[in-house]
Design a protein that fits this description.
Strand content of chain B: under 5%
Number of helices of chain B: 9
CATH class of chain B: Mainly Alpha
Helix content of chain A: 25-40%
Oligomer: heterodimer
Number of strands of chain B: 0
Distance between the termini of chain A: 70 Å
Number of strands of chain A: 10
Order of helices and strands of chain B: HHHHHHHHH
Structural class of chain A: alpha/beta
CATH architecture of chain A: 3-Layer(aba) Sandwich
Largest sheet of chain B: none
């Protein structure tokens, strides 16, 4: 199930500044079964794009099409996983997972079986009767992932889902999500500000400019899954993207501070004591 | 002295008779307040125009003391049970309404979006997400209202009717019996506290525990 975004533009209005264009004329395509990543500096409208695709925000211009038919409303074929694992605090883990299946017309028992099987897939089988506040941040995010997968969406939208969890948990979740997606073959659009994460997970990367967000460059990462963030063969691509993004960072800084701002490039290696042989 | 008066009140049956009347009044008035307060609060939380029109008026009414309602109630209902019940009701309702309204209005938009992407909308969205999310706030409202309704009840019984615990206070004042006044005040306070502890605190605690708000 392919996803096609065409000429998307949106601007927000602020009383003190006036109109702020957030994304401008963004077009890209994600093919069926592909894992695509949008990577860009903070505030470039990445999350806004996901919200538009999910149908939660209306764009000023442009269209979102799933398999050549345009979509405007939220629907369970495009499920978004938010940055915060938005679990309902008065429901248990299992009830949370079942609740997302509420609009589906299948039997109650079947819903429960589906929910449990996906919770087991994210290793939470022992916690199905726990309340969200009893879980750690990483576990909550795993519930959110299980819940999203249980809805069996054609397209999975992920909005920096691992940005709030610690490194160890994140590495593990990266590994697990790659395993799960290999089994389920979903089309994924993943948004992150971390280049390492993007390169680690994605088959295709869209590098975004600073606000207003535009697609600056497109890369492919043809490495076998599952990968690890620290895999040395990813380093070259990571470096390439970080050079593109550094320029964007300079642009933002220039705009903010109104001066010529240049990131200090690494220079000559100097020993800590700065003793360059003067004591000979 | 106070204990003696208290004992006297118990054995003479005066407390029993008065409490029976008072508890009947407060239970009717308070139940009405809970029902109407929650309904009005929900309506205000959902309908912006109603909220804008009514919330200012409610706050104005709240700043009026319970005593200020008595002339209105007596003229409207006559000097009978309904006047007392009305005063109890009006003193308790406003705090419930305002709490319900803010509970409904401040449901996290994240939770609502989460439900929307699962294809849940309309009445189901309200019943399954908005209302449960507002529950802690509603409970705070009905718990506060319990104390407020006692204030309304005692005021109304002093000013309006010839029966009930408020009336005992009035009569004891007439007889210049300070210890009986104090004993009765203690009785009123302790009933309010006991009910709060065995009912409302329990409900609140179980909700807090479920939500993980308690430490």
């Amino acid at each position: 199930m392919g996803l096609k975004v065409e000429n998307l533009s949106i601007s927000f209005w602020r009383k003190d500044v006036g109109k702020i264009p957030v994304i401008e004329d963004v077009s890209f395509e994600v093919k069926e079964g592909e894992f695509a990543c949008v990577v860009g500096p903070s505030g470039c409208g990445k999350s806004t794009i996901l919200n538009i695709i999910a149908g939660l925000i209306k764009p000023d211009k442009g269209t979102v099409c799933v398999n050549d038919s345009c979509v405007y409303e939220p629907s369970s074929d495009r499920v978004i996983i938010f940055q915060e694992p938005t679990l309902f605090p008065w429901m248990t883990v299992l009830e949370n997972a079942i609740f997302s299946l509420k609009a589906k017309s299948i039997k109650k028992k079947e819903k429960q079986d589906i929910a449990i099987s996906f919770l087991k897939k994210v290793h939470l089988g022992k916690f199905i009767n726990a309340f969200p506040h009893e879980l750690s941040a990483g576990m909550k995010q795993r519930v959110a992932i299980a819940r999203a997968l249980a809805m069996d969406p054609k397209i999975l939208l992920m909005d920096e889902p691992f940005s709030r969890v610690d490194d160890q948990t994140r590495f593990m979740l990266h590994y697990e999500i790659q395993q799960i997606l290999k089994e389920t073959r979903k089309t994924v659009l993943f948004v992150t500000s971390s280049i390492e994460e993007a390169v680690c997970l994605a088959d295709k990367l869209f590098v975004f400019s600073a606000r207003p967000g535009r697609v600056l460059a497109e890369y492919r990462a043809n490495f076998p899954h599952p990968r690890r963030e620290t895999d040395p063969q990813l380093g070259f691509l990571q470096d390439n993207i970080s050079i593109v993004l550094e320029k964007e960072f300079e642009k933002v800084a220039k705009e903010e501070m109104d001066i010529e701002y240049v990131l200090t490039k690494s220079g000559v290696l100097v020993p800590f004591d700065r003793n360059l042989g003067s004591n000979i | 002295m106070i204990a003696e008066s208290f004992w006297h009140g118990c054995v003479s049956g005066e407390y029993a008779v008065s409490l029976k009347t008072s508890l009947l009044r407060i239970s009717v008035g308070y139940s009405l307040a809970v029902a109407l307060g929650i309904l009005l609060g929900i309506a205000m939380g959902l309908l912006k125009w109603l909220d804008e029109g009514v919330s200012g008026i409610l706050l104005g009414l709240q700043s009026m003391g319970h005593a200020a309602w008595t002339p209105f109630a007596v003229l409207f209902f006559g000097e009978n049970e309904w006047a007392v019940i009305f005063i109890v009701q009006i003193s308790a309702m406003i705090v419930i309404t305002l709490n319900t309204e803010s509970g409904i209005k401040f449901v996290s938009p994240q939770l609502i979006n989460q439900a929307r992407i699962s294809g849940i909308k309309g009445l189901t969205l309200f019943r399954e997400v908005v209302l449960p999310a507002a529950v802690p706030s509603i409970i705070t409202g009905i718990r506060l209202a319990w104390a407020f309704s006692w204030r309304g009840l005692v005021t109304a019984e002093i000013l309006v009717s010839g029966l009930g615990v408020g009336h005992i206070l009035m009569r004891a004042k007439g007889q210049k019996d300070m210890s009986y006044v104090l004993a009765t005040m203690l009785l009123i306070a302790s009933i309010s506290i006991v009910v709060d502890n065995i009912i409302f605190k329990k409900i609140e605690n179980s909700v807090r525990k479920r939500w993980g708000i308690t430490k």
